[in-house]
Amino acid sequence: DTEVTQTPKHLVMGMTNKKSLKCEQHMGHRAMYWYKQKAKKPPELMFVYSYEKLSINESVPSRFSPECPNSSLLNLHLHALQPEDSALYLCASSHAVQETQYFGPGTRLLVL
Amino acid sequence: KNEVEQSPQNLTAQEGEFITINCSYSVGISALHWLQQHPGGGIVSLFMLSSGKKKHGRLIATINIQEKHSSLHITASHPRDSAVYICAVSGTSYGKLTFGQGTILTVHP
Predict the structure, then answer these.
(1) B1 has pLDDT over 80
(2) Between chains, do B45 and A42 touch, taking CB under 8 Å as contact?
(3) Which residues in chain A have their CB less than 8 angstroms from residue B30's CB?
């Protein structure tokens, strides 16, 4: 299995909702990443997990809460989002940090 | 000034043409990455290089560490090569990629 999967593919949520994005990989990678990408812009790093521990938080608002329950799974919990949070959320993994990253297809999020 | 600059921002080519996309960076790096993103979102890592040259099929990536410059070449371009090509560098911040703005490539049949 050489892919990163993300669910759901699309998500529409209101500003008072709580939802979660899920990312999974079975390549034995020990580093996992969340990125946010707005239209026609490059991805922006949000979080990096290394060996299931948060190693980088790029000053992301607390309405985004990451979780790494095990080495294969990465979640992003969403609460009280704003319309400007609408974007493509990409997950990636790598064997270790500083190595080639493998990206998932993304979850396209719309906040109403 | 961005830490990673790509040129051109947009590139249109006819099928079969040789294509070059350039990337310059201003920071110390441990590696440079070339990524491809098709409409719809998925990103594929094409190359990770820290010196010299790498080749995969019709794609060639080179890097000159002294000049802080990298190029991505596509030989015999094809409409399926149409995508956004993104240069990114990994530096001293462990696990963080700094991205260029991307080059939108359109190859016409």
Answers:
(1) no
(2) no
(3) 98
